[in-house]
Fold this sequence. Notes:
Two copies of one chain form a homodimer. By secondary structure, the first copy, chain A, is α+β, with helices and mostly antiparallel strands. Chain A has a single domain (2-83), classed as Mth169, Chain: A, CATH 3.30.1280.10. In chain A, 33% of the residues lie in helices and 41% in strands. Chain A has two helices and three strands; from the N terminus they run βαβαβ. The A-B interface holds A 2, 6, 8-10, 20, 23, 26-27, 30, 32, 34-50, 59, 62-63, 66-68 and B 2, 6, 8-10, 20, 23, 26-27, 30, 32, 34-50, 59, 62-63, 66-68.
Amino acid sequence: MEFQAKINVTLKDSVLDPQGKAVTHALHALHYESVSDVRIGKYMEVRLEAESAVKATELVHGMCEELLTNPVIEKYSFELVEVVS
Amino acid sequence: MEFQAKINVTLKDSVLDPQGKAVTHALHALHYESVSDVRIGKYMEVRLEAESAVKATELVHGMCEELLTNPVIEKYSFELVEVVS
């Protein structure tokens, strides 16, 4: 079975996000004054083969912890979908 | 009303993604051989004030087109949630 994982990685809430602050200021300068906060993270789409959804979930957790995220300062969440055709 | 937009930005399918290719190879080297493809993008969480969900949606489309994405090579999608407390 083929799956696609849509992974969102963000800095933990306790970690300062200077890039997000810069984007907030840029939006204010473009007259989007109603924006109060921006946080910037990464988005990854991973396609993989696995025997079952449970196995695929395990694999994605493994990848996130070993390579795709830095668990000291980042947190992640993902959505797994089965690719039907 | 306060809203949060969760915005995912990815390269268009027709645009090469060398960073994704590098991550695919790194995952293979870590014995995740079942991964066939990785695409890397950006994830942004934007908090904003607006009178209604319709108005907030308009604002987020505006920001994405004016600043947050490059419409020539990137596409975006977002989910809007109302922040209740």
